[in-house]
Design a protein that fits this description.
Keywords: Cell membrane, Membrane, Transmembrane, Transmembrane helix, Transport. 78% of the residues lie in helices and 0% in strands. It has 15 helices and no strands. With 299 residues, the chain is mainly α.
Length: 299
């Protein structure tokens, strides 16, 4: 038997056994399709119907009516704007910047300071979202901790949850979620070779110059990954806002998840609420594509 014949025989054997390689994955694939793909498919179907929790005896297919209604709804457009503001302030600016700053400072801090700071920041992260919401509600409310401190310092106080609700919930989300960014950036900064920064320091580069020209370029992929994960998590925040403001006063802190919940369960419009959920999913997908494209261009 020639070498070419042997190779051809081995290729035929591999092709014959190739389907068997997927056999161990079959149970997991079936479970994913059943418990993940099934509900997602059913939600997509509901989004194109007029399903209601109460008041309707039948459910009819209405096509794109729910989506047309959303784009013509002033409350929906307000929720989109507030969602983008909430995401920009609490994720793109707050968690990302504060997490990077804490990670950089903790690299130079003593071990007791690193341990204490890390414990405090991570404690806020591991709290259940609803618990964190009630804690921040107690902090920002008219008779809360923040106003008590301001009154003690002789500074003007106000009802933050009424005058600046979207900023209050944004800062609350920063307080709760910064730990994730800090951990990501701590791991990324620890991977930077000390020889590079030491050489730059010997060449006369200052701290800010080293950070801008060496540190940031070397952790840019971690920055992109952290921004993407933080953005997706922030887009879906519901319990924190619901515990603090319930989307109010009025609709001044009603982001898309809160608006979706209000339409689907408070107003019993399941079909319309599900359509809003699909639009929220589309917003998250667009953010992901933008981040993935930027990260691919940087390689």
């Amino acid at each position: 038997m020639t070498t070419a014949t042997k190779v051809a025989a081995q290729v035929r054997v591999r092709r014959r056994h190739r389907p068997l390689r997927w056999l161990p994955l079959a149970p997991a694939t079936i479970l994913l399709l059943l418990f993940l793909g099934g509900p997602i498919g059913y939600c997509v179907y509901i989004a194109f119907t007029n399903m209601q929790l109460t008041g309707a005896s039948t459910t009819d297919f209405v096509g794109l009516d729910n989506f047309r209604r959303a784009f013509g709804d002033d409350d929906f457009r307000n929720a989109v704007v507030l969602t983008l503001v909430f995401t920009f302030i609490s994720s793109l600016i707050g968690q990302n910047t504060l997490g990077l700053a804490l990670a950089a400072l903790m690299q130079r801090a003593s071990k007791p300071v690193r341990t204490l700071t890390g414990s405090i920041v991570i404690a806020a992260w591991v709290l259940p979202e609803i618990v964190a919401g009630f804690l921040l509600y107690a902090f920002f409310r008219r008779e809360g901790t923040l106003n008590a401190v301001l009154d003690g310092l002789g500074l003007p106080s106000q009802n933050w949850l009424y005058t600046l609700p979207i900023l209050a919930v944004s800062f609350a989300n920063v307080w709760r979620g910064t730990a994730f960014s800090m951990l990501v950036y701590s791991a990324a900064l620890s991977e930077i070779p000390k020889e590079i920064t030491e050489a730059a320091e010997v060449d006369g580069a200052g701290g800010l110059s080293r950070f801008w020209h060496i540190t940031l370029p070397m952790i840019r992929r971690s920055i992109g990954t952290n921004l993407m994960l933080n953005t997706l998590q922030t887009l879906s925040v519901f319990g924190l806002i619901w515990a603090m403001t319930r989307g109010g006063p009025g609709n001044r802190s009603q982001t898309l998840p809160v608006f979706m919940y209000d339409q689907a369960f408070n107003k019993a419009l399941i079909g319309y609420g599900t359509a809003v959920a699909l639009l929220l999913l589309l917003v998250g997908a667009l953010f992901s594509l933008v981040y993935l494209r930027l990260m691919r261009e940087e390689v």
